[in-house]
Amino acid sequence: MPFIKKPIQLQWTLHARAKMNHYRLTPSRVRHVLHSPKRVEEGVAPKTVAMMQPVSMKLVGRKESWSQEVWVMVQDVAGARKVISAWRYPGVTKPRDAAFLRKEYSEFLAESPVESAE
Predict the structure, then answer these.
(1) What is the CATH number of the domain that holds 20?
(2) Does 66 map to a domain?
């Protein structure tokens, strides 16, 4: 008998719930994206992963095409997977390189004002 993994418990942030409500995404749709993503990328926030799945795919010749994507950003914490955000993108995104994302995030951190605790 093959080894069956124990399911990972999902934790939902208030931000994720609000975004799911805004984009009319159900928890089952978000779980579906998490279990079978079309593309997985490094998230913009530190220690996060973003997963994408097309809303509906069409075959044009031998090429897949779609017009909308559902994205989910998650972070693994002790014994659970925290859903940080979920959104619907009205178009097709290009795959990004992890180095590009790190560079963009470091530039954002350099530009953002850091308040000192006095």
Answers:
(1) 3.30.2310
(2) yes
For the whole prediction, is pTM greater than 0.70? yes
pLDDT tens digit string along 78-93?
889 999 999 999 988 8
Question: Tokens 């934790």 appear where?
Answer: 11
Q: Are the CB atoms for 70 and 88 separated by under 8 Å?
A: yes
In a domain, 30, yes or no: yes
Q: Which residues on adjacent β-strands are paired with residue 76?
A: 81
How many other CB atoms are found less than 10 A from the CB of residue 19? 21
Q: Which residues of 82-101 are buried (b: 16+ CB within 10 A; e: fewer)?
A: bbbbbbbeeeeeeeeeeeee
- 3-class secondary structure, 82: strand
User: Total domain count for the chain?
Assistant: 1
Domain limits for position 13: 9-111
